[in-house]
């Protein structure tokens, strides 16, 4: 059975060309492998700059991978022709972080929702299209009376609903949501998350949901992959990850999630502390310089995900790392 999305050994390196001297290379994605199952929500979590959005761009065909496999419904995305890529858009759609910059301010809602239909030659009959647009707006909590309004006349949450409606206009099978609620107020975030959850259930969508908020990921996602410096360091079902995190970076991220039961939380993994060890930057483990559980094995053991429980994989050289809490770090 073909899975909706399969990514294997994906590398992405940006090259900055120089007139004199060597070109500057910046690796962003390093040997990433992920699978998005049918009718599942896969959360991609990590701090800013870890490569989450770059992964989305490669999956959407906006960026070309340096190497690796990126398949959508069995089709290798980087090798698709222009006509094949257009057909892929019927299957794969995206909702971006900032709804206002995603919408053309010169187009009203009717034009915004009709554009993908015009491109793909769908719903040509005037009455049929009107009924379809009404149904589409109703599905995202808006009304037919708002079709003639422009983006600046809506609130942030309403604009994101329009973006979701536009993404659903082609009835896709896969939705890529790149931090779709991070630019919204907390109360509006809850509304959009509930909407996405309802849409996923009613339309049986597969969704790649990118976020830096673990609480959001836990609410919406079936599985979660944790990314650090362009690598997947842990992957597990959502509840399993929250109750039994196995990578030190995952533990540090979870410690930053507010809780009424734990007013004093551990320091966030991205924050500089006196415990950081710059001399470990060259070690095989990319997290060694910030890890309080680091052992000599972390210096040489190749970075690799390994199964620690059913459907739970982790890349830690001292697994299970919690058993090493009382041992002195290097």
Features:
globular; eight-stranded mixed β-sheet; four-stranded antiparallel β-sheet; 330 residues
The class by helix and strand makeup works out as alpha/beta
Largest sheet: 8 strands, mixed
Widest beta sheet: strand line-up: 6-7-8-3-9-10-12-11
The N- to C-terminal Cα distance equals 47 Å
Rg from alpha-carbon coordinates: 22 Å
User: How many beta-strand runs?
Assistant: 12
What is the global morphology? globular
The helix content is 25-40%
List SSEs in N-to-C order: EEEHEEHEHHHHEHEHEEHHEE
Uncertain spans, ≥5 residues at pLDDT below 50? 263-274, 325-330
- What would the average pLDDT be, to the nearest integer? 88
Beta-strand share of residues? 15-25%
Number of helices: 10
């Amino acid at each position: 059975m073909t899975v909706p999305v399969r990514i294997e050994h994906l590398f992405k390196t940006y090259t900055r060309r120089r007139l004199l001297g060597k070109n500057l290379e910046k690796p962003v994605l390093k040997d990433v492998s992920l699978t998005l199952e049918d009718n599942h929500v896969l959360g991609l979590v990590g701090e800013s700059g870890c490569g989450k959005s770059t992964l989305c761009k490669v999956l959407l065909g906006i960026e070309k991978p340096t190497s690796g496999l990126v398949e959508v419904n069995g089709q290798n995305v980087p090798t698709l022709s222009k006509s094949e890529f257009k057909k892929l858009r019927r299957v794969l759609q995206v909702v971006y972080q900032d709804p206002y910059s995603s919408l053309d301010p010169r187009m009203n809602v009717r034009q915004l929702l009709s554009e993908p239909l015009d491109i793909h030659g769908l719903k040509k009959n005037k009455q049929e299209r009107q009924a379809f647009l009404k149904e589409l707006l109703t599905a995202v909590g808006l009304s037919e009376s708002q079709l003639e309004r422009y983006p600046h006349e809506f609130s942030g949450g309403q604009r994101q609903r329009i973006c979701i409606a536009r993404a659903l206009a082609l009835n896709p099978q896969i939705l890529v949501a790149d931090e779709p609620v991070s630019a919204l107020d907390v109360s509006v975030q809850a509304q959009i998350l509930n909407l996405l959850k309802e849409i996923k259930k009613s339309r049986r969508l597969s969704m790649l949901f990118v976020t830096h908020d673990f609480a959001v990921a836990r609410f919406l996602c079936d599985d979660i992959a944790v990314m650090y410096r362009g690598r997947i360091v842990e992957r597990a079902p959502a509840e399993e990850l929250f109750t039994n995190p196995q990578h030190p970076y995952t533990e540090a991220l979870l410690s930053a999630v507010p809780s009424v039961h734990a007013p004093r939380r551990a320091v966030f993994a991205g924050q500089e502390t006196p415990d950081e060890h710059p001399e470990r930057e060259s070690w095989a483990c990319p997290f060694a310089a910030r890890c309080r559980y680091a052992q000599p094995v972390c210096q040489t053991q190749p970075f690799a995900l390994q199964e620690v429980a059913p459907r739970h994989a982790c890349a830690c050289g001292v697994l299970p790392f919690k058993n090493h809490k009382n041992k002195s770090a290097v």
